[in-house]
Write a structure and sequence with these properties.
5 strands, minor pseudopilin epsh fold, three-stranded antiparallel beta sheet, 2 domains, two-stranded antiparallel sheet, Helix Hairpins, manganese ion binding, alpha+beta, 213 residues, 52% helix, 9 helices
């Protein structure tokens, strides 16, 4: 399942912003240093801050047995919690040494489901470009069938709680992920992101997901 950063306090665990596994400008020219800095330090940090604040309110509502308040906090919990989960995965599945072709069991699984890597790439690209408004395109693992599947999620809806698929590789198609560099041409951004795809990490995620079945 997704790994997210937390820090334990005396009362509860608070979520923290995970460090990038590379420098902010390391993914250039595919993703500029300016975009990465703003995306990580501003957008992801905001999800973390709001998630912690929402969880504090939730804990108080649970303590007060305030069912109406508990219910009213669910959208903020889903949005900010999803934003934290999604971005924590996103940083890990990109790499300055990425691109190329998957190998090993990941490539076998891709061929079994899609026929070829190129077909998977075509389907994931089309799905990601076609997201209406803001959201994510995902390559996920279905624990029930043991096969891969491409789906999209709106806004910051997290893949596993939303669909039951384990996230392997995600493409953030919110405008904040690309607009400073690619303007409104989302297809160019989605096409380019495969040049920094960390297939080794995606393969590790597939292996971990299979161990959970």
């Amino acid at each position: 399942l997704p790994r997210v950063a937390t820090v334990t306090t005396a009362s509860r665990s608070k979520h923290t912003l995970p460090a990038l596994p590379y420098d902010y400008n390391a993914l250039a020219p595919v993703i500029s240093g300016d975009i990465m800095t703003i995306h990580h330090q501003k957008h992801h940090q905001t999800y973390v801050n709001n998630l912690n604040a929402t969880e504090e309110k939730l804990a108080q509502a649970v303590q007060d047995s305030d069912v109406s308040k508990i219910i009213s906090l669910q959208p903020a919990l889903k949005f900010n919690g999803g934003g934290h989960i999604n971005h924590s995965i996103f940083w890990e599945v990109l790499s300055p040494n990425g691109g190329g072709l998957p190998t090993g069991d990941l490539m076998v699984a891709i061929k079994e489901t899609f026929g070829s890597f190129d077909e998977m790439k075509t389907e994931l690209t089309a799905a990601s470009v076609g997201v209406q408004g803001s959201g994510w395109g995902w390559l996920g693992f279905n624990p029930d069938s043991g096969r891969l599947k491409i789906v999209t999620c709106a806004n910051q809806d997290p893949l596993f709680p939303t669909t039951g698929l384990v996230p392997l590789f995600g493409i953030d198609v919110w405008e904040h992920a690309y607009y400073l560099q690619y303007k409104n041409v989302r297809p160019d951004y989605v096409k380019a992101i495969f040049d920094v795809a960390n297939w080794e990490e995606v393969g590790n995620r597939l292996a971990a997901a299979r161990l959970q079945v």
